[in-house]
Amino acid sequence: QPRVFSGIQPSGDLHLGNYLGALKRFAEMQDEGIEAIYCMVDLHAITVWQNPEDLRRSTRELCAGFIAAGIDPQKSILINQSQVPEHAQLAWIFNCVARIGWMNRMTQFKDKAGKNAEKASLGLYAYPSLMAADILIYHATHVPVGEDQKQHLELTRDIAAKFNHDYGVDFFPITEPVIEGTATRVMSLRDGTKKMSKSDPSDMSRITLTDDADSIARKFRKAKTDPEPLPDTIEGLADRPEARNLVNIYAALADKTPEQVIAEYAGQQFGRFKPALADLAVDRMAPISTEMARLMADPAEIDRILELGATRAREITAPILRKTYDIVGMVGPT
Ligand code: TYM
Predict the structure, then answer these.
(1) 9 is in an annotated binding site
(2) Where can the motif 'HIGH' region be found (predicted)?
(3) Which CATH architecture has domain 3-179+298-328?
């Protein structure tokens, strides 16, 4: 039986990459009727320093973002990671399964830790092991994510396989990454070779769900492009990362294929295309940010939703953790 799990860090504002690569896909999968758990990963967020007040606010805001993007807390389970303690408990077991050599190959750790890896937190290093626990504590089978999470999901498969092998069981499923759609890797608006990211120092590099219509229009107008008009065919985008990125964003927002977008705008200048893109983005994002603001006016209601989510989640996670402990040989209630 398929079960979906995915998570987003409550650190900084949600951007267009998070929306197109993750949130929008989650809502589409929910409509297909698959059981799903969506998680604000606050334990992952603190692998780099977070101001406590900001973390609290970002967590609630992210919960509002999930709901505003179409996740129904009645249909899906919405949780805050630290409220379901089995995630961290299983992560410890996985810390003892995963190998240091595997962690050393994680490119996201290298990117985030920078040159001075000695100063990175131990949590940042162990991050992928907690991520594997997030998924496997539900025996989730499908994980929708953007392209940048691919390596972590491969590691999740390796951890599940090694656990099963070491203990001679067939307990944890080998999870399938779901990296689909035209926006699995939304690029920075300032540099078509870098992904759009919360940590980019330039605010002009990303569109966020809290941007108003004017800033969305300004950011797209100033987005880096080459001087050529849009090509007649999709092949014409091959060596034009910035142009390709804008076409892909348009396609994802409009629920079209990049081919359809090219057919519509073939030979047009960016002076025409960018305002159309900005209008489309405002059209799709404004209702979400309005709804987020409405939900944020009642933080107590958000907290209630998360509490209910945690209760439902623990009905799944507590037995799986107990069974894991049994397999490993830990004495406990029978
Ligand atoms: P995070 O918080 O960095 O990003 C959340 C989701 O957004 C996707 N994403 C993008 N997609 C397309 N283009 C982009 N530029 C872009 N930037 C981000 C990410 O791929 C992700 O799907 N480690 C995870 C959170 C996590 C998780 C998990 C995910 C923790 N446990 C278990 C899945 C399953 C992260 O940092 O995502």
Answers:
(1) yes
(2) 10-18
(3) 3-Layer(aba) Sandwich (3.40)
